[in-house]
Design goal:
With 429 residues, the chain is α/β, with parallel strands linked by helices. The chain contains 13 helices and 25 strands. Bound molecules: shikimate-3-phosphate.
Length: 429
Amino acid sequence: MTSCKLAGPGVLTGTVHPPGDKSISHRALMISALAEGESSYSRFLEAADCLHTMTALQALGVDIKNTPGTGLVTVRGVGMNGLKAPEKELYLGNSGTSMRLLLGVLAGQRFECQLTGDESLSTRPMRRVTQPLKQMGAQIKGSDQANYAPLTIRGGKLKGISFDNHLASAQVKSAILFAGMYADGKTRVVEPVTSRDHTERFLEAAGVDILREAGWVEIGRVDRLTALGGAIPGDISSAAFFIAGAAVIVGSELTVKDVCLNPTRTGLLNVLRRMGAHITTEITQEAPEPMGNIYVVGRRLKGTRIAKEEVPSLIDELPILMTAMAAAEGESLITGADELRVKETDRIHSMSQNLNAIGGCVEELPDGCLIRGVSEFRPGKVDSFGDHRTAMSMAIASRLIKGELEITGTACIGTSYPRFFKDFEDLQK
Ligand code: S3P
């Protein structure tokens, strides 16, 4: 358990190249593992979560080479039916994406395997994935009707279903689409709002026919995936800490280079602009994923509201948005965000507690929070609650404090952004 002491106040100025996108890195490994031929990627996210997906696929018989520190990864695909039963359970650490998406892949395999995780992952709800996969024909066991890891899954003959993804969860959607590649008939996922669509884009690029309309996506049986490769765009969810920080700290001037600008992921920018932020973007690549640069100039921001429909496009950015809202003028209201309570920690609680500990004014609601902006935060001590995004959000808050902020439990930052403190320091020069 590490901790750090950060001294403020100060601006966030300079250029950041955020690490490779976490969601896309997971999918690059899984889809390439099932493809035919070799796929090589650069800017692969070498953070604990994606490395858990990598070791799990290696244990399933996939040859994956990564030279640590380079971001280069090469996956030799085994084809749709080439995975092998692992010798022992697959340990997935803190990574919900690894567990949920791999369940979808494993639902199509004719062997049994057990998935385990750390303390936090073992308390996160899995029935949202295991229930539809069971309906498709997979056998899955775990406590509380296969809601919690350890989970044992035996895949087999699957049939397509039409599933109402009322949570608008991309993890659930992706798991079902992966299983749908092994199912007889069509598999359809219906969503109230389109969640991040990296899986659909990736599978399309690998040659899969996917039907997509506003509100649903459909896939049929897949015999073959083509190998892919290329540079993984930067993660807007990691860049978000600096983007929101720079937007709300007057005097900051930030450039973010080569970041994923997929519209299912850019809700953060829309909200900050509504708050009065000065943000411009420049698209440098359209496909397979939109990518580009973001420019931010700091200003005093004003409060705004975020409701349910917008949440999927900024779900991981809510902790840092709460920080920006706590330092903005006037009131902000977040509703329809109950999913935040079942992330790596209960983020409504962790962020409210932490912001209030440094002089913020945040009231928890069952599905969000009410925030009254304050003109400055005060020195103090906060905790990560074992959650990487809570820890990084509080590190950014330190730039708004005249004095010192101690953050305990910062080791968890390695799950998504091992280089965070280095990039953070570079923006303080
Ligand atoms: C992810 C989807 C989101 C997000 C998570 C990564 C993904 O979760 O919070 O960090 O890669 O599909 P949900 O799909 O459960 O909302």
